[in-house]
Amino acid sequence: MACLGVFVGYFPVTTVSVSLPVIQRALDASTADLSWVSDAFVLPVAALILTAGVFGDVHGRKKVFQAGLGFCVLGSAVALSAQSVAQVWAGQALLGMGAAALLPMTLALISHAVPDPRERGKYIGLWTTSMMGSLTVGPLVAGVIVEHAAWRWIYLLPIPLSLVTMVIAAFVLTESRSPVQRALDWPGQLTAASAIVALVYGFIEGGAGSFGDVQVIVALAVAVCSGVAFVLLERRSPSPMLDLTLFRSAAFTGSALVVMISFLALIGFFFLLSLYLGMVQQLSTLDAGLRLLVITVPPMVLGAVVGRLTRFLSPRALITGGLVITAVALFTLTNIGTDTSFGSLAWRLALVGLGLGLAFPCMTATAVSSVPHHQAGMAAAGNNAFRQVGGALGPAILGALLTGRAVGTLPDHLAAAGLPASTSSRVLDAVDAGGLGAVAGLPLGRATGPALRALSQSFLDGLQLCLLVSAVVVLFGAAVAAWLLRPTSGSRSAAPVTAGGTRPVETGRRPDTAAAAGPK
Question: Do 482 and 316 touch, CB atoms closer than 8 A?
Answer without folding.
Answer: yes
